[in-house]
Design brief:
50 residues, mainly alpha
Amino acid sequence: MLIGGEARAAGCFGIGVAGRLNRSGFDAGTVGKKAREIVAAWCAASAIMP
């Protein structure tokens, strides 16, 4: 289980992956946008958790 900095790094890495997939056309429109919103929110939450 990832904790602290590891979780934060994984979340922010996930944002980058989602962005690349979206640019490549792998995920489209609303689905990709929502996925990025969820990952961004998770990354932000992990940043303020101990």
